[in-house]
């Protein structure tokens, strides 16, 4: 979901995929607790206002435990809007949010990816949300 104040002048989408480089079949949603892993986030903006948007994106990934446990921020990165040229459209972006091994205890977690927009360091009314997937972390 991509929300902003520009109506049909700006259209966006976001996709987040869990990648476990040490896993058997990356991408994977079953992660050994000791393994480092990451969330690969791809998003884009298009339509009439897209070439004129400048500033920064802040990409954050949160975990919400299912059944009790850790809930909070796993990591975040900042991506400048000029990382994608204003033209041609769409403006495509990607980022990796790395998660160190042993960050999460064994259990099930729902991930939420949030992309916030700021201009000159001031947060503004534009954000993208991607709910899921659910991951299983297991101790080996």
Can you tell me about this structure?
- The protein is mainly beta and 140 residues long.
- It has strands at 2-4, 11-19, 30-32, 37-46, 56-66, 71-80, 91-99, 107-119, 122-138.
- It has a single domain, classed as Immunoglobulin-like (Sandwich), CATH 2.60.40.10.
- The strands form 2 sheets. Strands 1, 3, 5, 6, 8 and 9 form a 6-stranded mixed β-sheet that branches. A 3-stranded antiparallel β-sheet has the order 2-4-7, with no helix packed on it.
- A hairpin with a 2-residue loop joins strand 8 and strand 9 (122-138).
- The termini are far apart.
- The model has no long low-confidence stretch (mean pLDDT 94).
List keywords for this structure.
Immunoglobulin-like, 140 residues, mainly beta, 3-stranded antiparallel sheet, 6-stranded mixed sheet, 61% strand, 0% helix
Describe how the helices and strands are arranged.
Blueprint: E1 2-4, E2 11-19, E3 30-32, E4 37-46, E5 56-66, E6 71-80, E7 91-99, E8 107-119, E9 122-138
Parallel strand pairs: 3-9
Antiparallel strand pairs: 1-9, 2-4, 4-7, 5-6, 5-8, 8-9
User: The biggest beta sheet, please?
Assistant: 6 strands, mixed
- Any idea what the CATH architecture is? Sandwich
What is the total domain count?
Answer: 1
Q: Could you list the spans in which at least 5 consecutive residues all have pLDDT below 50?
A: none
Fraction of helical residues: under 10%
Q: Give the CATH level 1 class.
A: Mainly Beta
User: What share of the residues does DSSP label as strand, in percent?
Assistant: over 45%
Order of H and E elements = EEEEEEEEE
Overall outline: elongated
Task: Return the CATH topology.
Answer: Immunoglobulin-like
């Amino acid at each position: 979901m991509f929300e902003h104040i520009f109506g049909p002048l700006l259209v966006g989408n976001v996709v987040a995929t869990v990648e476990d480089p040490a896993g058997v079949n990356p991408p994977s949603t079953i992660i050994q607790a000791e393994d480092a892993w990451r969330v690969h986030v791809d998003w884009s903006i298009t339509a009439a206002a897209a070439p004129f948007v400048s500033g920064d994106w802040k990409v954050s990934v949160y975990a919400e435990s299912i059944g009790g446990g850790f809930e909070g921020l796993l990591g975040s990165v900042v991506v400048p809007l000029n990382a994608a040229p204003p033209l041609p459209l769409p403006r495509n972006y990607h980022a990796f949010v790395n998660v160190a091994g042993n960050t999460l205890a064994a259990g099930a977690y729902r991930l939420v990816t949030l992309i916030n927009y700021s201009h000159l360091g001031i947060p503004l009314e534009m954000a993208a949300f991607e709910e899921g997937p659910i991951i299983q972390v297991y101790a080996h």
